[in-house]
Amino acid sequence: MHKPWLMVLLVFVVLAAACGGGEGLSSTSIPTPSALRTQTLTPTAVTSPTLTPQATDGTEPLPLSLGETAGLPPNVALIVEIGCAHCDGPTAGLVRVYRDSSGQIRVDSLFNAHENTEADPGSFITSFALDSDASEIVVALCSTPEKCAWLGYAAPDAKTTLFRSLDGGVTWSEYALLQGDHRVVAVTNSGVLLLGPLNTEGEKVWLFPSGDAVEAPPGGRWPLSLAGGELFWLTEEGRLLRSDGSLFLDLGPTSPLLTQAKYHRNPSEQSLLVFFWRETLEPQTGRYYLGLVGRDGGLGQVFSLPPPGWVVPGPWLDSTRMVASVEVASYLSPEVATRYPEGYMGNVLAIIDLEERTINPIVDPFLDPPFAWGRNYVQAVLRGPFARVVGTGSCLNVRAEPGAAGQVLGCAADGVLLRDTGETQEVDGVTWLRVITPAGLEGWASTVYLER
């Protein structure tokens, strides 16, 4: 079974960070880590309420229970990482799931190592990162599969190719070719945060394309999260440190062992969602908890998960609900679980309602490929309603004003989901819709080429 703590050393949690900008860069003049400058990522101004700290020892966490099966929420699109659930193999791809204008569930493949690239047939995804709304996604691909290693040591002459999308994963371009095995940590407003080259004396955390090195504080071993511009570091003891070395979170020696942390912007507050595990309870299976941590490091509410299952939390749907990946065996009612073959190992998505304290599994479409038998980790929630670009054969102009004479601000490829504001105007017999692109560009597009 693919458990979170098995991957903490190599798979870095992709967190919501400020949107990266700029144009695609060529693969020439790539900086080498041995000649890096040093840069410290500092927090950006973020306003958030302080959560009231609550002790984990001596305080009974609020229990979450299995609720009714839920449907895929309307007016949202989920970006889901797929891959083997019962092994520690690499990511198989990124998929977008949403309900189209007719209410039918649509599943779109966004990135696959062999469908989107001309890479060696044995190439595989080593890591990826995306910003909060998935407007920018960066994928690292092992370009020399005989030299790379998913779990283990890479050869010094391994190569990594970065691919980048600026429209929510619909179109991709080669961003850079790097010498060595590099892993993507996060997409930031300062560039793409990378770790590498792995297993060499020059291994560093650094920013592409600037080449600036990001130094770990004393005791910091692994870059774990990037929240509002601040990079956190996980220690071997399971503590979280700020970039300046100060303690951000310590659950104590008798408290749960921190195994994973994800930062997602809550629509009503800025909070750090922490996923952690206590070994001391039920040692055969462990016991899992969800905790909310404020920007100041104060521990707020703590929720216990029904044993023996575990949850990989994802982004927020609203101020009290988030989406997550949950084990089929633990979180499906017997009548629903019978739809799976005996011995099934895999995850479905679920809505965790912290106000109602329920875990509500989303069964469809996760019974079928490409999700069946998969890990299915939610990486981003895109909020609609949407207008899908269709039938252009290339791309649809987004203009500053309604009408063919309006200045072209950008061009959205077929398959891109534009945010439908509902505002329309008729110009020369054509209906124009005010839309927002994945990158946040606001303009007008002809409804002739929109599915809404």
What does this structure look like?
The protein has a five-stranded mixed sheet, with no helix packed on it. The chain has a five-stranded mixed sheet with strand order 2-24-23-22-21. It has 452 residues and is mainly beta. The two termini are 40 Å apart. The protein has helices spanning 328-331, 334-337, and strands spanning 62-63, 65-66, 76-82, 93-99, 105-111, 124-130, 137-142, 159-165, 173-179, 183-188, 191-196, 204-208, 222-227, 230-234, 240-241, 247-249, 257-266, 269-278, 287-293, 299-304, 311-316, 321-327, 347-353, 358-362, 377-383, 386-389, 395-399, 408-413, 417-427, 430-436, 442-446, 450-451. Helix content is 2%, strand content 42%. It has two domains: 4-383, Neuraminidase; 387-451, Roll (SH3 type barrels).
> What is the CATH first-level class name of the largest domain?
Mainly Beta
Widest sheet: strand order?
1-20-19-18-17
User: What does the overall shape look like?
Assistant: globular
Number of helices, counting only DSSP H or I runs of 4 residues or more: 2
Largest sheet: 5 strands, mixed
N-to-C span: 40 Å
Total number of strands: 32
CATH architecture of the largest domain: 6 Propeller
The figure for the number of domains is 2
Question: Cα-atom Rg, whole angstroms?
Answer: 22 Å
Helix-strand category: mainly beta
Unreliable residue runs: 1-58
In round numbers, the mean pLDDT is 79
